[in-house]
Amino acid sequence: MGANFTGVRTGEGFYTSFCDPDASIDVEPPATTEMPPQFPTSTSTDTSTSDVSSTNTLPPLSPTISNYPWPAVRDNGSNITSGYFLNGTGYDDVVVLALSELSPPDMDPMAYLVDFQATIANLLAKSREQNKTKLIIDVSENGGGLVAAYELFAQVGIPAMIALISSVNTSSSYPQHTAFSANNIRETLSVVQISNVSSADAVEIKNFDANTFDEPNPDEPARFKALSSLHENSMVEQLIPGHLFSPITGLNLTTSDALLGPVILENDTFTAYQYHPWNQTEDVFNITGAGNGANVPPSPFTVENTVLLTDGACSSTCATLARLLYSVNGTNNAKIRTVVVGGRPDPALGTVNNTSTGPMQAVGGVAGAKIFYFSNLHEAAKAVLVLSPELNSTTNSTENEDLLLLAERYAMKRSLAGIGGGEAAGSLNGKNDFVSLDNLETPIQFLSWNEGVIGGVNETNYCHFYYTKEMVFGPTKVWERAADAFWGEDGRDKLCLPLSDLKKEKGLRWMTYKLTKVKSWLEMSTPLSLDLSTESRVAEYLLL
């Protein structure tokens, strides 16, 4: 388990070793791999690396992942992004983009994004050169990460990415599309306090430069550290007005009041809906389609010839990528195809030809728009108390209690208790994400992915199969079966689980299962013992 249980023999001992923050080692977590905020500035020189026609130096090709085939392209060091060209009859035009993560564990976030951009551009260029027309995006085990999801969407998918990107070339095999983006944050009192204080110093925070910061008096070192901390804090970036926009009105949220809203949902309070327009140019990295990378080469893949392959573990930014891809309508309103592999049989749905059936959610992880690390919360609260010392006042101790607890690192120390090393304390789902303007009441993580996001699975867009022995030793057989399901001669009828995507049949089989249970109850009762309570039980069960 990676934890030291020496001397732990009772529940009290367990609590002292692993749960009591006052007994823990005071350890600062390492810098997270989350991308530091890139606040837009009026002095941007647009030194973007997003010109996808440029060729970055990529590493010599080699199979860097055990049991994987030789890559057509791969990333430069993070070893989480690679592209493959399948071989053999029926696979000559199939490309696989394997994304095990969307953030590197041991690589500078900006360096990763620049490299990711170049890797995807290189794969698409080679696909065009070799007339590849079919794409499988494999996000197995992908837990999310950085804005790489938007970058991939901009290159592979859409020539008019939102209102996210407004100046891209439209000569793409994907249709013109306006992608939707809207999210918000649960508005606790501490969130309001952090937003208000940070907004008051927004200019200094956004434009903070350690090399030009003046220290006119002895109190400035503390202020210097506080401003530096807020400038680098990815949570605070979401709470400062000026660079965020309303997806409803399209207007810039220029004040903290406009950003904070509030929005009331189910008797709870949230910030206003917001989105970040990716066409704003930055100094270090720009999404493809913004800045000098606006002339995007056409994608060689159509909606109908794109498959998202998942094992259900897709979450966070991976879920954002899936939502963006699913939002596109192709010819005759076709959607991208979905292949879900693995899962477990659902006995409630019975069997067909001794094969357990049942649909499986394509995205089984959290579908929030952004995570906030405990270190983000602590550093933000600590910095805000420096900039507004009146919040330390005991007069309003009840009102400021949450902010003070965050600054004291209670949650962090509790999570780090007993670890004894620099492991990150933890994180939480910081931002809700929403499907469309038609549903701004229920965040995606509370919707059924297959029904609420995809809009329903059917025989044209969905396939579910289990792993086989051959698939355990490498991904190639999984990729080939996914390709065969939608593009092969056998097709999905033979290669996918029967009835795994038919809602009507699912309902009939569920009712059959219920009736079987009722039959067993009745068989255990004699006619004389079948009383009103039993009848009520049967009726209530059938109506569930």
UniProtKB/TrEMBL annotation:
Positions of region (Disordered): 25-61
Biased composition (Low complexity): 41-55
InterPro entries (alphabetical): S41A_metabolite_peptidase
Protein name in the entry: Podospora anserina S mat+ genomic DNA chromosome 3, supercontig 2
Organism per entry: Podospora anserina (strain S / ATCC MYA-4624 / DSM 980 / FGSC 10383) (Pleurage anserina)
